[in-house]
Amino acid sequence: MSEALLSVRDLRVEFATRRGKLVALDGVSFDIAPGEILGMVGESGAGKSLTGLSIINQLDPPGSVVAGEIRLNGARIDNLPPARMREIRGRRIGIIFQDPLTSLNPLLRIGDQLVETILAHSPLSPKQARERAIAWLAEVGIPAPDKRIDGYPHEFSGGMRQRVVIALALCAEPALVIADEPTTALDVSVQAQIIAVLKNITRRHGAAVLLITHDMGVIAETADRVAVMYAGRIVEIGAVADVVRRPLHPYARGLMAAIPTLETRAERLAQIPGAMPRLNAIPRGCAFSPRCDRVFARCLVERPPLLTIGHRKVACWLHLEAAEEGR
Amino acid sequence: MSAEAPLVVVSGLKRAFDVSSPWITRLIEREPRRLLKAVDGLDFSIARGETLGLVGESGSGKSTLARMVVGLLAASAGHVLIEGVDIAAKADPVARRVVRRRMQMIFQDPYASLDPRWRVGDIVAEPIRAFGLRQGKAEIEARVNELLGLVGLHAQDALKYPHEFSGGQRQRVAIARALASEPEFIVCDEPTSALDVSIQAQILNLMRDLQQKLGLTYLLITHNLAVVRFMATRVGVMYLGRLIEINDTTSLFAQPRHPYTRMLLDAVPDLTMSGRARTPVGGEPPNPISPPPGCPFHPRCPRATEICRTETPEFVDNVACHLAHGDPNWLAGA
Amino acid sequence: MEAMAEMGETAAPAATRRSLRSRLADSDMLVSFLSSPVTVLAGVITLLMFAAAVLSPWIAPTDPFNPATNFLADSLDPPRFTADGDPRFLLGTDDQGRDIWSAILYGLRVSLLIGGGGVALAGAIGITLGLIAGYAGGWTDAVIMRVADVQLTFPTILIALLLDGVAQALLKGSSHHETAFGVLILAIGLSFWVQYARTVRASTLVEKNRDYVQAARLIGLSPLRIVVRHILPNVMGPVLVIATINLALAIITEATLSFLGVGLPPTQPSLGTLIRIGQNFLFSGEWWIVAFPSLTLAILVLAVNLLGDWLRDALNPKLK
Lengths: 327, 334, 320
Fold this sequence. Notes:
The complex is a heterotrimer of chains A (327), B (334) and C (320).
Chain A: E1 6-17, E2 20-32, E3 37-41, H1 48-55, E4 63-72, E5 75-76, H2 82-91, E6 93-96, H3 100-103, H4 110-121, H5 126-139, H6 145-148, H7 158-170, E7 176-180, H8 188-205, E8 208-213, H9 216-222, E9 225-230, E10 233-239, H10 240-245, H11 250-258, H12 297-301, E11 307-309, E12 312-314, H13 320-326
Chain B: E1 8-18, H1 23-29, E2 35-46, E3 51-55, H2 62-69, E4 77-82, E5 85-86, H3 93-101, E6 103-106, H4 120-130, H5 137-150, H6 167-180, E7 185-189, H7 197-214, E8 217-222, H8 225-231, E9 234-239, E10 242-248, H9 249-254, H10 259-267, H11 306-310
Parallel strand pairs in B: 3-8, 3-9, 6-7, 7-8
Antiparallel strand pairs in B: 1-2, 1-4, 4-5, 9-10
Helix pairs in contact in B: 4-5, 4-6, 5-6, 6-7
Chain C: H1 2-7, H2 20-26, H3 28-34, H4 37-54, H5 56-59, H6 100-136, H7 138-153, H8 156-170, H9 176-208, H10 211-218, H11 223-260, H12 271-282, H13 288-315
Helix pairs in contact in C: 4-6, 4-13, 6-7, 6-9, 6-11, 6-12, 6-13, 7-9, 8-9, 9-11, 10-11, 11-12, 11-13, 12-13
């Protein structure tokens, strides 16, 4: 098995508040292989955005990484000085945020922003960089790129802006792209286009993607594998088809059943009672236990680790036997 | 469905916003007036007890329409009638008040729809007091507790402030407030778009239960096709301020007759991974200030012909498309 | 109904109104207040000065404005702690034999009354006009804002002089001394209302479009009720900050006016008047007559300003 491109082990993020420490990420571990698209899905507060921010060392205080290791191509990046981290951001890790209005500088032409990034990370002349920028714009599907390269962000529509942001994230040819809710602010018809662009471009350039979103539909269309997050922990991780069609963890099952689809014919949507616990009230044992319909004694006292079942992992005591059999 | 007259009738509803430059600039630069036609002639009706879903993307005018239907925004032309009574009712303020009591609205953003300085109990009690539905502190309090129970909250929650609740709980408070004036008709403007999926399921179920229990009529406005599939009995599709197709839910989803409807359905990510056939989508919703000539959808339409570029299609037989008449299945296998 | 309650998220059990004490102890604002020694000091000083002003008739050793108790023989005595000081007078006396320490206490009272009154009036006018302009929009808004712009072009002193003249003309027979109080409060009020109006108008414009205001409109509440019960409480935050900082400015303004002679008379002096009187004696060596009132004024203004700074930062959600 080839070595993982990104390897996160036991990542723990805490927020220091007046009332004590809040654990926002509690031992998150996963790998991303080169060129694969890993989806990270969860509801608000689950910690998926925090994971992305931790990897690129952009956590705002009072949040801080207190434990764990993050390795890119085998080398640790979680303990680097800020200058080194800046180099890595952009050159080796590209970032796409949700709101293209804040990712693009409204005062600079998009051509200038692209060229600036290309020049910073590759030994091209300004003229060559500009040509490369035009090529990128064409690749993400901007019509008449040689003319539009001199436009300002506000002259583009939402979908076009997001394409520019994708170009910006990839123009330095990073090995990994972290995309945090890239389609959430877009209309439905535009979402589909942007997902297609993201998928094609990353495949073509061999970049891996950490796709963070709350939209399971986007994951189903785009990702190879998916990690389901709940209350700062990964509760299930595996191939997209497996997790979407046959989820193992009760939360993942409940989540899939709650999402209405075009094919839903039921009179009621399956719902999970209660809500995700607040950070200062995470239950002992399994974080999902108060809401689980299959809870038993062990769930209340002991937190389940990620158990391996074939190519999948699930953090649930119900699957202990299946995991042990596989061993 | 009974043959009785519909509860809500919207006819010829229009709303234009004047987005011209100030008159002195126009004078100097000889610019014409510019009108943004947010809603450009809408006609539909809603029967008592049914849920009409209206779907559209940004620029479709659905939010403007929502506000016009409940009277928060005045119409430039056209009428909204609740059992035959015009909600604008300029001549008769008493009738206007009576008709206004029969409708309510649930807003999209649970973080902005509750006054942050008021306690939840007072928020829910406000409509009761405004319409004089109960007298005396004890009666009002009892009614507030009853309403909170109806939406799945506790009586003690009345003492808290909105910021002490999660998004889903706040939306429950908003629903309780909407029910407080005992309306028959509720306009829901993207009621679950700001909520997590598992909370959305709770709220949608709650809304359906309340509809059955209290005999409510809903106008559900959303961009989420799956939600509308689940909630609505009939669905209308809006594009650039116009209704371009309307049908009962099953038929619309099985045999969409307008190419835009087809495109919207194809754009929904396929959660079941059934590998269904999809036409690739193109283009973006146009700017309502300068709509394309002829059919507003023609620049993005894979089936556009010459007539589509020049003539605006009439809304005939529940669809506004030059090519849609005849075989209802004409878009299948595209 | 129980089934439905179960399906909802669990709300916290038995939420009784928490005691004021426990809410205060937990409050972010109290913690931020206590965490800055400068702010605490400023708060303490302001409190002491307010207390001194209120209690002045009881703490002051003498009543400096009762001619019967002043002896010209005692005039121009230096402060007690200096070489030839009179032990009766802590900070010395002025040319009329008035005890400076007592005069400061009474002066403080007058300064704070006028400053506070002026700010209250400015706030009342400004908030009202700001709410009306913001909510009504259109021509009403335009007219009010143009009036505000014009108001800003008038210097406070000019307004005070104008009002003084008008008061003299209207209330024939009363001397300048009797009307000075009202004139000053009115002058300060009319000078400072614009800032309140602009801030409140801006906040009103934002709140007006929020859904909770739309919900109130939906149930047919009158605009007056909506503005007073929903919008006003939500725009008061910035107003408090302005008011605190304005208080310092109002006190200085009154002092300036008194210093220039259009303010309070020597028989009922504020700190500014005292400074004016004392200035005449500065170069003949009786430095204490001007020094102590000036020092008091400076400390008061500084303390109130620091308090206002803290309040602004504490109420600003973006700084958290």
